[in-house]
Amino acid sequence: MPTSSHGSREKEFRAGMSDTTHSLHHATRKRFDRVVTKLLAWHPVNKPQYAWRALRRTPYEVLVSEFMLQQTGARQIEKKLPVFLKLFPTAKRLAQAPRSTVIRAWQGLGYNRRAINLQNAAQAIAARRTFPKTLEGLLALPGVGEYTASAVLAFAFNVDVPVVDVNVQRVLSRLWKPMEDAHAKLPVREIAELDRTILPPGTSANLHEALMDLGSTVCTKQKPRCAECPVRGDCPSAKNLHGIRHQPKPKRNIEERFFGHPRRIWRGRILKLISEAEGITAMELDRVLREDYPTILKNVLDTREFQELQKAILVSLHAEGFIAIRNGRITLTHE
Ligand code: SF4
Fold first, then answer.
1. Domain total in the chain
2. Could you list the residue range(s) of the whole structural domain that residue 147 is in?
3. Which of 3, 36, 167, 175 to mutate to test the pocket of ligand 1 (most atoms within 8 A of CB)?
4. Which residues are bridge partners to 330 per DSSP?
């Protein structure tokens, strides 16, 4: 396919920038048509092989995988998703399972609150007897936000909706306007409008998967590989980003640390200990934690402060429905 000259492309990009995303300038529209065609041709032969994708045969399976992907990488769910779906093959089976079994099955994925939200969502689906097929219906499920609802609509029903995760946001930002550096990106709302406008009917599942995979393998945040990119001829950011290795922004450490770790790490460890030793007491829990973290905790002279942290975590786990406490013994919630 012929590519426009540098000058005419610049002109087109400037024209594109003055468009609203609702009504693209003719040349911009043609450019995005080319981008979409190239991406849909590139994807089937270049996509990363994720075994879990073959497991997304039903809307429920898509929902489970999207919950897992909310805060866990695509490679990390490779082992967990098949095991989880074997244990809970339908929304009804997940809805009826003891909570403790669901929490145990989720362990290793982190952010355990998702396990409870997912089971609550399964209970809502089981109660209504049909899987919701609209944005409103999906948004009414516990733990389902706008992104997850759109992703389920696209990947389970191939509905033409924008699905903007971090990869789609980065790739479409770079394709829409010249980005000056690797960190630059446009607001999600603007990208969602562009996504809606360029999406050919009936391609939602394929195109969004292609955009996500391009973003995770080629148009990466730190080192975009523009020379290998199937849409470089139509990308206004290539000349700025090609060949540059961008330094990661220094992370702002916003997570407060307690005894060397963020609270969520202590919380995850405590939950795991309770699931391994059902009926453990607070005193035993304190002792095992001290044995597990001797280096960190050997200098903790003020044991009361560490116990206060454990107590606060137990109170929140109890309030959120993870654990039950009876006669001083702590267990996972079974009902
Ligand atoms: S040409 Fe470079 S910046 Fe543009 S989409 Fe491809 S990898 Fe990303």
1. 3
2. 51-157
3. 175
4. 280, 325
